[in-house]
Amino acid sequence: MQMWILVINPGGGSTKVAVFNGTKPAFSETVEHPPNQLVRFGHVLDQYELRKSAVLLTLGKHKQDPKRLQAIATRGGPLKPLPGGVYRITPRVAADIRHGEYQTVHPALLGPLIGFELSQELNIPAYFVDPESTDEFRDIARVSGFKGIQRVALSHALSCRTVAQETARKLKKPYEKCRFVVAHLGTGITVAAHVGGRQVDATNANDDGPFSPQRTGALPLSGIVRACFSGHYTEAALLDLLTNRGGLVSYLGTGDIRRVETALDGDNKQAELVYRALVYQVAKEIGAYVVACEGKPDAIILTGGLTLSKRFLADLKKWLAPLGLKVVVYPGEAEMSALASRLLAVLSGKDKERSYDKEISLRG
Q: pTM for this structure?
């Protein structure tokens, strides 16, 4: 099916923009937003005009006439809890984001806002796909160990489901009959269990799991409590440290695995220890999620920016070898093509569109 689809993917320091004709990209570009450009904004949503302008300027740069576009696909962001799927961006979606009806702040929230406004201007439909707030958890996965605090489903759901479905196709087995451990290994890390076509458990990169290039992952609780009451941090400052300046950045001053590898080649002992700990923590979490599959997984699936490092990948596979499971790798990430293909499946009738308004009403 041929259809001109605009794909918008706002991230922490960039806005990815692409146009697809069916599943073929006409172009794909990442517009960088340096820290000195973003620092003047008090809230992520204040970046709206900057990000929308980036989309329109990129379309113009690639000589793409907006009037030719037939649909828009975007990331959803950490919205209210929702089952995975493809959702039409309705006035209620935009209103909920503007009124703070979401779980946490992330630039991905700008995607539905930009998509909605452009859809109104161009008179075409706009959709978000598998938002970070995709929640298909088993009830037992929500229990935290302290009454009043639940484990929250916030993950790289789009990336994880995309590679899980592709692996099922390679195995010539329905995704709904597969068991997978999926690890998205990027700036933040998600390790998830996919069982019967659902993501039944997953780490929340802001709360638990292994540390990552920029995030701390799970930390010793007593240390966190003492930090909170030390008087050295405001709530906002501590949250920023945990989610933007933790992990590799905290120890080595960089979240770039290429720079870490350069330090390793220079016989930097601190870099070697921290790097080995990163690989170890990721492998340990994957092992835990083998248990969460409630049966032998069909495969362990690895994707995300860290998988572009041959050294990291080789070292991780050594830790995983005793599990005796098939390991499938999708280097980097393919969220832009995934957004286009998932929307195309709905528009061609191969998949069903989900209703945000209905889901929110059902969940109260």
A: 0.92
The domain in which residue 261 lies consists of 139-333
pLDDT of residue 2: 82
123 and 149 fall within a common domain = no
Tell me the two tokens of residue 139. 């009830």
Residue 78 CA to residue 47 CA, distance in Å, equals 17
Pairing of strands 126-129, 71-75: parallel
The token duo for 317 is 């596979």
Where is 288: in which H helix or E strand?
A: helix 269-292
Tokens 């196709």 found at: 169
pLDDT in tens, 325-345: 999 999 988 889 999 999 999
pLDDT of 163-172, one tens digit each? Answer: 999 999 999 9
Residues 206 and 297 placed together within one structural domain of the fold: yes
Q: Is the dihedral of CA 13, 108, 303, 238 positive or negative?
A: positive
CATH of residue 42's domain is 3.30.420.40
pLDDT of residue 34: 86
Distances (CA, A) of 23 to 71, 91, 95, 174, 335: 13, 28, 31, 22, 13
Same domain, 50 and 152: no
Residues 6+ away with beta carbon under 8 Å from 20:
4, 5, 7, 26, 337, 340, 344
Angle at 183 between CA 177 and CA 186, to 5 degrees: 145
Give residue-wise pLDDT tens across range 239-285.
Answer: 989 988 999 999 999 999 999 999 999 999 999 999 999 999 999 99
How far is it, in rounded angstroms, from Cα 127 to Cα 106? 18
Is 138 a residue whose pLDDT tops 90? yes
Domain identity same for 231 and 148: yes
Q: Is 79 in the same domain as 186?
A: no
Q: Please, which residues have CB within 8 angstroms of residue 271's CB and are 6 or more apart in sequence?
A: 252, 260, 263, 264
Domains held by the chain: number:
2
